[in-house]
Structures are given as structure tokens and as C-alpha cells.
Here is the input.
Amino acid sequence: MRHMRGVGAVVAGIAAVVVLSGCGGDEAKPASSPSASEGTADAKPSEPVPSEAAEYPATPEGDIDRLADEKGWVVDDLYPAASDFVTDICESLPVSAVDGVSRPQWLAESGNFDGDGKAVLQAGIPKLCPKWSPVLKQAVSGRYDRWFGDGTYVVSSEPGAAEDEETIPPGTYRARGSMKDCYWERTTKGGDIIDNNLATSAQEITVTIRASDGQFTSERCAVWKPVK
Here is the structure.
């Protein structure tokens, strides 16, 4: 009985449509409503919402780049992103500061701290190469061993105290390695020789530079490192 009542209702509905329309042709068909997928004439297609996760991957590199953008830090144009700069420094530390200068000295005195470099490295090194964090701390503090190659240095406890000239703090230094015709000299501020020596062949040479000295010169010697 329920089924029959349902059919009757459909027939009655059709009859009503025919009567109201005046004919039973195609014009009697009600206009179909737009489907949900078609939308309305005024409806605009939905636009994707930018996702931070897509712009900054959930990685240490992504964290560094996000922070750099938030802080407005700028790195050298050589690097596409702040994380690339940090990665390069992490890869360079083991090899770029072995012979000529100490690692903190290289980090602090080779232009790596210029501009926002220091801030980027302080944020990035603990994430990408944490084993170099102690070196970074020394470089930032300025309290680190400085090594010296060949050249003439003004004797001073303050790095950069002499304009356009490199400085060397007073103290005892030792050069080690296979040295041929290594010449060194200590001079007064007026340029007079206080002490000097030419080693035609040596494996180790130790020199003490006094605070009263004016300059220290080294030629064809190994790297001078402070003696602890």
C-alpha cells in the first residue's frame, strides 16, 4: 500500500505540472538547478590558502630560513637562502682554518660576521653543525687564539689597533714544521732590530715578543701559534 500511494503521488504531481503549463511538451520540464559542482554565476573558484609548511619545510634548514625572514636578516647574494650560508660555513670550518689561522679566528675575521652574518650563524650553527658551537662562541666573544703567518705585524694587545696594519699580541709563539731559510725579527717602534735569526733548516722555532716591541716580522716560516 505504501508503494501504491507513492505512485499516485507522482502521477498527481505530473498532472498538476501539465495543467499549469498548458501542454505536456519539453517546456513543461522544470529548469534544472545548478549542481554543487557547477556553482552559481557569481561564485568564484576557491583560491589555495598559502601554507607556511610548504614555504618552510619542517627541517632545521626551514627553521633557519623562517627565522631569517621574520627578523629581516640578509645574507650575501651568493646564497639563495640563510640556511645555504650556514651550510657553507659548516662545511668550510673543518678545512678552511687548519693551517693559516685558528678556526674562531677564521670565523670572526674572514668577513663571515659582516652584516647579519653573525646573527644568522648564531641561530644556524647550533641547528646544522652543533659540534662547532664552542668555536662560534669563542669567535663571538673575541677571546680566542690567533695564529700568524708570514708578514710584518705591529705589536699590540688590541686587534686592529694599527690602521691598515695587522697586529700581534705580545707573548711567546712557536712555529712547527719543515722550515727552510726561516727568518724572523723583533724590532723597536723605530724599526731598530732587537733580536733576529735566520734558520736555514728547522723543525721548531720559539720566539717571545715583548709588549715593548714595535714590530714582528716573519719570512718563509711556518705558522706562529701562541704557547700555552
Summary: The first helix runs from residue 2 to 21.
